[in-house]
Amino acid sequence: MEYRSGSIKRVFTVRFDEGDDFLGGLRQLIITENIRCGWFHVLGGLREAGVVTGPKEPVMPPDPVWAQLEGARETLGSGSIFWDATEPRIHLHAALGHHGETILGCVRKGTKVYLILEVLIFELDGIDASRPWFAEGGFNRLTFDV
Question: Where would one find coiled-coil regions in this protein (predicted)?
Answer without folding.
Answer: none
